[in-house]
Amino acid sequence: MSHRFTAHLGDEPVGDDQPYARPLLQLGDEQPVPRQGCWAGDCTEPEESPVDLYCAKHERVIPGSRINVGPRTRTFILNLLRFAICGAVLLAAGIGTSIPLFALFVVAGIAVGAGSLHRFPMTVKVVIGAWLLACLVAALLPLLSPGVESILRAVLAGLVLVLAVIHAGAFAWATQGSYGGAAAITVGAFATVPAMAMGWVLTHPSVGFTTVPSWVRHWLLIAMVTGVVGAMLVAAIAGAVLGQSKVNTEVRAPLSARPAPWVVHWKTSAPRRSKRNPWEQALLKFEARAKYVVVAMVRGIANLLLRAAHIVQVFVVRLINWVHRQMVIAVRRLKAAVVGTFGVIGRAVVLGLTVAGRTSQVIVLPALAVAAGAAGVVFGSDYALRYLRGEGLDVLGPLAIAVAGGFVALTLLWMALSGLPFSESRDSWLRSALLAAPQLIVMFTLGGWVVGLPGLFGPGPITVGPVTITSTALLVAVFAWARWSGDDGEEQDETPPAATVRPGSS
Q1: Can you tell me the distance from the alpha carbon of 234 to that of 501, in angstroms, rounded to the nearest whole number?
Q2: Given a cut of 70, is residue 496 above it in pLDDT?
Q3: Fewer CB near the last or first residue (10 Å), C or N of the chain?
Q4: What is the phi/psi pair of residue 252, to 5°?
């Protein structure tokens, strides 16, 4: 049965030329390695999910099936682990320290948080490393002075916020797609704002998470404002640049100049003919010549002035048309820049929601889950020691809350980092829980008798308590009900047997 993990960004193999190959981006998107059977041996049963802990056919554990050891060696290792658990419990109760119980809880946390991720090798390494670091810090915090504890908390919170900002920027750039690089850069610039805001909240005196000087909170506010302004500036520049390619620079001229200058064609009349004496005729010709010269001169000056007026008109019209064109293009460019800016912001918002979801899933939520689980380990080991040393049933409530809280936190951790849909992870968890719960209850009950019997007869530091007695009674009741209902719950064939006819009978 083939299974396609649609929760991942793509189905292409991870290579050196892809940003998903980087460990920070590979969280929540790592492709599972092929499965190699279960503890039943050469198992080829197809899986239902890559986070299954048990084989559906043989009901055997899948993690560790790659270890090439025989069945006897595996049985020896399991029995050795059981004796180690009982020995750690006896040691903790005997010397009055929770360190052995703390170690058991840490190992159990690795099994819960990293067991289902056995087919995600890089993610398993990150989870185990973060879990061990968180447990170490949680164990050391009560031993440190308040000042050192505050500094350590601030450093760890700052590290998580820095990782979140880096992941948000890198993931936005890697998954920009049709949103464009401008939207990705805008998201990366804005990613510092929620990080600085969270830092400002955590450092507030009323919260009490950590104590920092007042100038640190002041600069956190400045960083928030700078992040907002920087993101808007990036969007504005990108929108202006991207919008210029869409601006239409063709503008219709509002005015048109006369194609040719004005021209006057003033003329003089022909000289009158006179039959008088030659002197009078000479005067008439002189008059006609003089008039012609005057008219030609005036006409030339007038045409020269008209040509000058035409030049002025052309210049003024072209100047007006140029100014008009520049104003229209400027308005168009401004409009394109505004539209482009809002377009970049809109794409950045859509991309930012995706980036925020993924960063919260693979950075913020796992960090909170690891912190909660580590706190559960510290408190749970302490309350477990108090119960083992006979402090009564009052410590069972806090112990149950610490264990259940840590278990839920680590379950959410592997669900978030697997990158699978929640419904698929939930179904896989239910299948694993239904198979693991009976075994764990039986092992817990038998272990309780093993470590409690010596104390029941005097020399041991632990006695059989109400939890072991109650679990034993429940197991006895379940086994009795299963036996009474018929062959351990197996369905019986209620079909009556066929009648046997003997020879000679009627």
Answers
A1: 96
A2: no
A3: C
A4: -75, 130
